[in-house]
Structures are given as structure tokens and as C-alpha cells.
Specification:
This protein is mainly α and 698 residues long. Helices cover 68% and strands 1% of the residues. Pfam families: EF-hand_7. Residues 540-575, 576-611, 622-652, 653-688 form the EF-hand domain.
């Protein structure tokens, strides 16, 4: 309710300001006096009646026009607020910093509009224009300033479109990385890929820039080969991330790894991607300085071509192609870093191995490429000029630092490059739309030349934007591994993994209760509610099933007893009777020994838990589980109730992890978890409820 009040207060203030500005635009001879107010002061008390009525008619029309304009602006403000809210509701919670940053940058437009209004009303442009262009061109400077102002508006609009494209690509990458991480942990799937890679000698070829252009920057690449290449790279990066290899010879894996074997590397990359996109949206001062330098360069180019727009338009198109080539080279540089950081898997016939086990690879290729960098040669001969100038006296350079531009400062440098590329793309399109295309249409050039200009001007931006997803994913991976790994994000992913186990255990208990209810209502159909997944039960599924089993096995006996069900249901706020607990045990107890083994639990898990749930199903499941946990029926889950749920499962939450999770869920800071906040928790882990098959390798 408070949020709604704030919106209407904002609208009321905006309406008042719009009214004042609109009235001021209609101002009379005195700039400080709006025409409506001037008329009210200057209206004669007596005079010709007809003249007075005509004048009053003009006033009515003018006042009505201003009122309509204000109402129209209020309607636009309401639409803007509705669009903003709909975007925020549709976006993932972790994407909120990106959305907020985007709308924060849009406020720059309001600041520029206020500055433009003040400057034009002071009359400075008229005086300056007369001195620069002569008495007959007193409006020339004002028109130029307004054109630049509109140009900035279009630039920010196209920049916002770029950001929304990145948000959409981020959602796709979230799903892709989840699939890749699942595939890398599936022994049978990896064995199949190893066999395929062993029969394709071309997969061992080193990537060059020209090959990269032909392979990545065209839409005609074989999808299966691209999939195997990406999956192999992801596999190698994940392996090196898990083993956390020492930076010094002999580059042995870390003895006490903080990252478990089953670490969700895909989830880690997703969180890093959200952080990076949030930083990219907030344009840095360095970015604006670089854009200012680029503007000065084009000013000098305009002087050289003597303001011949026809020549300048072709130079602008050529610049677009240069930006495209630079973007391709930048992405190729990211690929070089990733290939150097990834483990060099060279599979042979037997490929079953654990993440920490010995790699089945050939000879000297066992270590990743970065371990073969000669630091002495790099420092003396290969170190970049900018690194020599700006990084003198910095900390010790490692072999991994040598892979990056500006070494340890590489990620910050890359972020600025990405920002400049995005803003220049928006500037390029704005110039085409506002200046180049209208000029070409008025020139009367042949239709063939117009079409050629249209194709050549838009094609580089189309190619650049079509590869945004690949560029962002490579950039995020390169800036989140090795010396740039993020311990805070690692801790968050490990905590989220524990939450996912609790959610799966809660869903299991919910399904089990439903099955018992169906059986009691219809004893003749004991399997009512059973939905066979019909899918292959992979090693990853088996591991998830085992962790769910362990979470419910509170007594640590290796089997689930009736008392275990009772302890878990008590933690969920459910007062179960002895008869209901025995009925739950009987549903899973296939051999009738009074306890549930892992094999019996696995059968139930496969048939009742591994099923597809849509948005409605997730919401219904969340609402049902929320009412169970909300023991006092207050409509809010208190911190003690939520902590009791976490403690009832054998997952191993620390006190700090519980505090961090509660703070994350309690978005409105009222000390409790509402139903909407609980629904968002399940939506965050919605991939647990989707049957996403692993892609076919051939």
C-alpha cells in the first residue's frame, strides 16, 4: 500500500511541474510570467463586450489546451510506471540491480531536459547564435542544441534496448549453463561425448581469429559441433575451478578445496553474470571520457571532409564495420583466455573419472595452457604498453594475469570496453535514424544505392547484436575464474544448493502426503497421483535423490523410519498422527520391513518428484507449502518458524547461512516472510521442477 501511495505522490508532483512548465512555455513578453497569469493581470476591467468575449474565448482554449497536455503527460507517467513494474515483476530477483540501473540511467534524460529548458529560457543561445552565425541566424544554435538533445534521447533509448536484450540473453544463458553443469556431472553423457570427440580430430585445432570469424560470427555454423565445443570448454573450466590449481609450479590442485565436487558451476556463472550486468548498466566516468575523445575525433574528421554529409555518412558506415571487427576481436580475446584456462581433456576409450581423479589426457597436455607461460619472457618482451605505463609497482604478476589486458585490472578494463561498445552502438543507430537515412532519402540517389547504403550500414550492428549472448557469456566466464574467482559468490552458490535440497525434501513430503490422502480416499487406486517421468534416471538425478533421502533421514540410520517422517513434519508445522505416519511409510515400503531403503525411496522419487511443473503448478505448490509452514495462520512466516523448517532437515546450514537466507527472502524488511516472498523462493529454483533433457550430441 505504501508503494502505491508513493507512486501517486510522484504523479501529483509530476503533474504540478508539468503544468508549470507547460504554462511557462506559453509565456508572454516577460519570460518570468506565464501567459495565463499575464492575461489575468492585464485583463481590462471594462471595454468592448465583443472584444472581451473573444479574448475570453482564446483564454478558455489556451487553458483547456494546457490542461489536456498535463493530463496527457500524467497518462504517459502512469504508463511508464506500469511498464517499469511489469518489467520488475517479470525479471528474476537477481536481475533487479540491472533493471534498477537501467531506469537510473534514464533519469539522465530528465536532468538533460531540465538543463535544456533552463538554458533556452534564459535566452543565451539567441545571443550566442547571433555572434556566431550572424543576425539572420539567431535560431541556428538553438536548433542545433535541440538536435543534439534529441540525439542523446535516442541514444539512451537504444542503450536501454541493448540492456533489455542483455537481460533476455542472460535468462537464456542461465538455462544453458544449468544444462551444461548437469551434463558435466552425468558420467554416461560425458562418456558419449568423449567417444564423439575422439573420432573428430578437428576438435583439437587451435582457434585463430580468422577461423573464429568464420565459425562464430556467421549464422551458418553446425549447431551440434558448436554444442560440443561449448560443452567441452565448459567442462574444462569447471574442472579447473573445482580443483583450484596452484599458481606456482608444479601447479598441483589445492589440498583443501573450498569447492565441493558437485559444485554448481553454472549457477556460479549466473550470479557473476548478474553482478557484471549490474555494473555494465551503470556507465563509468572513464566511459564518458572515452566517448568524449571519440566525439573529438569525429569533429576533426568532419573538418577534413568539409561538412560533406555524403562522405561523412560513408565514413560513419565504415566506423560501424570497424566497431564490429573490434567486437569480434574482443570476443576472440575472451575465447583465448578461456581456452588457456580450461583443462586440456584429450579423451580415450575409458573416460569414467571424478573431478578430483587423474585426468585421462595425453603427455604434456595434462596441464592447462596458462601453466606454460614464460613469465620472464612476458615481462621483458610481451607485456603491453598500457600495462607498463599504468601498472608499474603493482603486486607480483602471475601466469594467469599475463592472459588479460591490463593484467589483474583486466576485468575492469573489459567492462569499460563493453560499455563503450554498447553506447557507441546506440549512437551509431541514432545517427543513422536521425541524420544519415533522412539525408540519403532527400538526395534523390538511385534506389540501388539507397538499398546498398541501408544494408551496409545496418549489417555490422545486426551481426554485433546477434552475438551479444556469446560475447556476454565469454566475458563473464573470463572475469570469474582463476585469480578472479569470487569467494562471496561461491558461498552464496553453496548456500543456494542447500536450499534446493530442502525444497526437494519439502516437495517430497508434500507429494507423499498427497499420495496418502489419495490412497485413503480411494483405496482401490493406490497409485493415484503417480506421474512417471519416463526419463532416464541419470547419475545427477541419483545424487539429488540421495541428498533428499539424507535430508529426511534425520536419525542417520541409513533408512527412513516412521520417526523420521514425524520429526520432519513437526518441523514443517504439521501435527501428524501415528496412523498417518505409518500410512506414509507403507506407501514407500515395498518389502514391508517397516523402513524405507534408498532403492525404495528412489522409486518414489522418480515417479512423483521428477515431474514437470508449470508456473501455475509452482504457485499452487508454494501456496500449499506456505500454509503448512505458517503454523499460527498469521499469513506470514516468522523467523522462528522458518528456522525450525531449516533445522528439521539434515542439510547442515550454518548460523551465518541461515541469517543470509532470511535477509535475502525478507524483501520488505518487516521481519517476516510473506507468501509472495516464499513463492519467489520456489521460482528462483524453478529449474528443479522442469524436465530439461540434455541436448543430443549428434
Amino acid at each position: 500500500m505504501s508503494k502505491l501511495n508513493i507512486h501517486w505522490k510522484t504523479l501529483a508532483l509530476g503533474a504540478f511541474l508539468h503544468y508549470i512548465f507547460a504554462a511557462a512555455i506559453n509565456g508572454g513578453n516577460e519570460p518570468s510570467q506565464p501567459r495565463m497569469l499575464a492575461h489575468a493581470v492585464e485583463e481590462p476591467l471594462s471595454g468592448d463586450a465583443a472584444s472581451s468575449e473573444g479574448h475570453e474565448g482564446e483564454v478558455v482554449i489556451r487553458d483547456t489546451t494546457v490542461t489536456v497536455i498535463v493530463l496527457f503527460l500524467i497518462a504517459l507517467t502512469i504508463c511508464f510506471e506500469e511498464i517499469k513494474e511489469s518489467i520488475e515483476e517479470a525479471a528474476d530477483r537477481e536481475m533487479m540491480p540491472v533493471i534498477e540501473g537501467l531506469f537510473g540511467e534514464l533519469t539522465v534524460l530528465g536532468f538533460l531536459s531540465v538543463c535544456t529548458f533552463c538554458v533556452t529560457k534564459l535566452g543565451w543561445f539567441t545571443l550566442l547564435s547571433e555572434k556566431l552565425f550572424g543576425d539572420d541566424e539567431e535560431e541556428e544554435l538553438l536548433e542545433t542544441f535541440e538536435l543534439v538533445h534529441y540525439m542523446l534521447f535516442f541514444i539512451m533509448v537504444f542503450f536501454g534496448i541493448n540492456v533489455l536484450v542483455l537481460v533476455k540473453d542472460a535468462e537464456h544463458m542461465k538455462r544453458t549453463w544449468w544444462i551444461y553443469n548437469r551434463a558435466c556431472r552425468d558420467d554416461a553423457y560425458m562418456a558419449e561425448m568423449n567417444a564423439i570427440l575422439a573420432s573428430h580430430s578437428k576438435s583439437e585445432e587451435k582457434t585463430t581469429f580468422l577461423r573464429y570469424l568464420g565459425r562464430e560470427m556467421t549464422p551458418f555454423r553446425e549447431s551440434k559441433r558448436k554444442l560440443r565445443s561449448e560443452l567441452q570448454l565448459f567442462r574444462g573450466l569447471r574442472h579447473e575451478f573445482v580443483v583450484e590449481r596452484s599458481l606456482d609450479p608444479p601447479f598441483l590442485p589445492h589440498e583443501q578445496n573450498l569447492v565441493p565436487d558437485e559444485f554448481d558451476f553454472g549457477r556460479y556463472l549466473c550470479v557473476c553474470m548478474y553482478h557484471e550486468l549490474g555494473h555494465i548498466v551503470h556507465l563509468q566516468i572513464h566511459t564518458w571520457v572515452i566517448l568524449g575523445v571519440i566525439t573529438a575525433i569525429f569533429w576533426m574528421i568532419a573538418l577534413v571532409v568539409e561538412d560533406q554529409l555524403e562522405w561523412f555518412s560513408w565514413i560513419w558506415v565504415g566506423t560501424g564495420w570497424l566497431v564490429f571487427l573490434f567486437g569480434a576481436f574482443f570476443d576472440y580475446h575472451m575465447v583465448e583466455i578461456l581456452e588457456a584456462m580450461a583443462a586440456n581433456f584429450q579423451p580415450i576409450k575409458s573416460t569414467r573419472q571424478s573431478e578430483r581423479g587423474p585426468l585421462i589426457m595425453g603427455g604434456s597436455k595434462e596441464l592447462p595452457d596458462w601453466t606454460r607461460i614464460d613469465l620472464d619472457d612476458y615481462t621483458q618482451n610481451s607485456r603491453g604498453l598500457l600495462a607498463r605505463l599504468f601498472l608499474r609497482g603493482n603486486s607480483k604478476i602471475t601466469r594467469q594475469d599475463a592472459l588479460y589486458w591490463m593484467e589483474r585490472k583486466g576485468p575492469r578494463c573489459y567492462m569499460i570496453v563493453f560499455q563503450v561498445q554498447m553506447v557507441f552502438t546506440a549512437t551509431y543507430v541514432s545517427m543513422l535514424v536521425l541524420i544519415m537515412f533522412p539525408f540519403r532519402m532527400k538526395m534523390g540517389t538511385p534506389i540501388v544505392e539507397r538499398v546498398l547504403f541501408l544494408v551496409l550500414s545496418l549489417l555490422p550492428m545486426y551481426l554485433l547484436l546477434s552475438k551479444y549472448q556469446t560475447a556476454v557469456s565469454n566475458y563473464v566466464m573470463a572475469c570469474s575464474i582463476g585469480v578472479h574467482r569470487r569467494p562471496g559468490v561461491i558461498s552464496q552458490v553453496i548456500r543456494d544448493d542447500k536450499v534446493s535440497h530442502i525444497i526437494q525434501a519439502m516437495v517430497t513430503m508434500h507429494r507423499l502426503q498427497n499420495t496418502v490422502s489419495f490412497k485413503e480416499e480411494d483405496p482401490d487406486h493406490a497409485h493415484t497421483g503417480k506421474q512417471s517421468s519416463g526419463e532416464y534416471f541419470s547419475s545427477v538425478d541419483l545424487e539429488a535423490c540421495g541428498k533428499t533421502f539424507d535430508a529426511i533421514d534425520v536419525s542417520k540410520s541409513g533408512t527412513i523410519e516412521t520417526s523420521d517422517f514425524g520429526a520432519v513434519l513437526k518441523g514443517l508445522g504439521v501435527a501428524a498422527t501415528e496412523e498417518s505416519l505409518k500410512a506414509m511409510t507403507a506407501v514407500l515400503d515395498e518389502d514391508g520391513d517397516g523402513s524405507i531403503s534408498r532403492e525404495e525411496f528412489m522409486n518414489f522419487y522418480r515417479d512423483h518428484i521428477m515431474i514437470q511443473l508449470d508456473d501455475h503448478g509452482i504457485h499452487h505448490l508454494a501456496e500449499t507449502m506456505f500454509r503448512q509452514i505458517d503454523a499460527d495462520g498469521s499469513g506470514e512466516i516468522s523467523m522462528s518458524e522458518f528456522k525450525q523448517v531449516l533445522d528439521s532437515f539434515n542439510v547442515g546450514f550454518t548460523v551465518d547461512e541461515i541469517g543470509e537466507l532470511i535477509n535475502e527472502l525478507d524483501e520488505d524488511d518487516n521481519g517476516t516472510i510473506g507468501e509472495e516472498e516464499f513463492v519467489k523462493l520456489l521460482e528462483k529454483h524453478r529449474l528443479l521442477f522442469e524436465k530439461i533433457p540434455l541436448p543430443k550430441l549428434e
